[in-house]
């Protein structure tokens, strides 16, 4: 309907209802566990005109966790919660399913040993990102080496890393490759 002629009480605003679902998604995510993350980074609003009440919204939700059961639980709860938002109908399609991949303990130990040998501070951590290592970790023993970005900024124009940290990362990578070559 036209935005100027339809009273608020008579509207079925798909964007407003989608935003309510997004808040519920955040709540569900926080309830399930600290390592579960949810992101809606893509919205398409139809018809996309400033003077027309949105009648349809397509949004892409991404869920990630080290525990695949948490992801499935979140999906189930999100679908159930969407049914309680009565103004609009929600439909869900799983478009990508990439299970968690664990890194090889031997490779991780080699990386740790290089850090210790070179007196480089390190931290074992879970990466929620879908790096290349995730794609082939089930076929090839894999590990990852991260270097810190200034202020932790990543995937943005401000992302930057100090040269000294890059040098440390290269040192650890070289040691790791040499150690793995001996197998």
Shape assignment: elongated
Beta-sheet strand percentage?
A: 5-15%
Can you list the strand order of the major beta sheet? 1-2
Largest beta sheet, briefly? 2 strands, antiparallel
List low-confidence stretches.
none
Distance from N terminus to C terminus (CA atoms, Å) equals 68 Å
- Work out the helicity level: 25-40%
Radius of gyration: 22 Å
E-strand count:
2
Class by SSE composition = alpha+beta
| Secondary-structure element series | HEEHHHH
The mean pLDDT is 94
How many individual helices?
A: 5
Q: Keyphrases for this structure?
A:
alpha+beta, two-stranded antiparallel sheet, 183 residues, 5 helices
Describe the structure.
Helix content is 40%, strand content 10%. By secondary structure, the protein is of the alpha+beta class. A two-stranded antiparallel sheet has the order 1-2. Helix 1 (14-32) packs antiparallel against helix 2 and helix 3 (105-117) crosses helix 5.
Compact description:
The chain has helices spanning 14-32, 68-84, 105-117, 132-136, 163-181, and strands spanning 37-46, 56-64.
Topology:
Layout: H1 14-32, E1 37-46, E2 56-64, H2 68-84, H3 105-117, H4 132-136, H5 163-181
Antiparallel strand pairs: 1-2
